[in-house]
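User: Hi! I'm a student and our assignment asks us to look at how structure tokens line up with a sequence. Could you show me two examples?

Assistant: Happy to help. In each example below, the sequence comes first and the structure tokens follow. Example one:
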Amino acid sequence: MNDTYRYLYTHISIFGSLPTHKVFVSNTSNKSKLIFADNTFIYGLVSDWTLRNSDFGSDKVTWIEEPKSYLENEKKKLALYKSTHPLFITESAI
């Protein structure tokens, strides 16, 4: 059974955290899909606190909606993060 995900918020990277990613949560559980600037993703869990606090958000649900310069900068940061963290592996849609 395929999960359906809804956009929750964009997590902006800070020093020591994962690169900036868009957080989508399953409509049936607290399973989440974190989508990075290159449209690769990982799955995770979102805490109940995050689910209850809906103050988070952005009007830009997809990466293509972001300004081009911002998107390119985030792709560079993601590439750097991946090169310095070889165990960090993302998936891509086929």
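Example two works the same way, sequence first and then tokens:
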Amino acid sequence: MARRVCLLVLALSLMTLSASAQLVVIDPLELEQTVLIAQRVQQVYDQLRAEYQLIVQMAQGLRNLNGYRIPPIAITGLETAPFEYGRPWIQGMNSGDARGTAYLSTAVPLQRPDASLDRVSADARRLFQNQYATVEISDSVAMLGGHQVALIREYHNRLQQAVQKLEDDVLNGSSDYHQMTAVLDKISAGELLERRQDMAANQLLSHALEQLLARTKRERDTEATTINMQVTTWRDGRAANNAFVAGTGDALRTWRQP
């Protein structure tokens, strides 16, 4: 009898240990944290999936970009055939005139002063030299400006070729041309071309400014000469009139019938 009781107690003890080992202990705080992490992971996943779908949609929408192609504007050259006498310099503005030979062949020659300039007064010599300098400055600006226009024409063709290649890459429908690195390279190339165009435009603007400065000097010299003549008239007019009257009177008094 005692043996049976012991066996029953032992069996109950084993059953109790097995049942207690199968019980699951749940921590509410850890469970709440786990749920929050799972929700955040789901939100990040949904966001990444939406971005991926947007990128795919954008890539599919950019397959046909031929409608965005812009035809190039060809820079025109000056017509030389109808102009017989001005043809050398017109041709120089088309193809280049580095030494100004074409310009000088169509301009009125400017004679160099000889030794007779040394016989005039210092003021007269200075006035002549300033007027001569105005013509020389105008010639220098015109020769360089005409040659620069020809260089810009040639430079425009090279820029146009680079822009055309960049446009082909931008409008290419292949996905290889729209990777991040490729897009950044095209942006850099576009900025570089823009800087080159700005440099060419600034060069033309500088020559336009030089033309204005040369014309301003010419106009200033003309106005200064007119003002100086007026000042001289006011300063020496009375004495000149009196001398003229006195000389005329003496001539009349001493005149005799031949």
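Here is something you could point out in your write-up. The CA atoms of residues 178 and 184 lie 9 Å apart.
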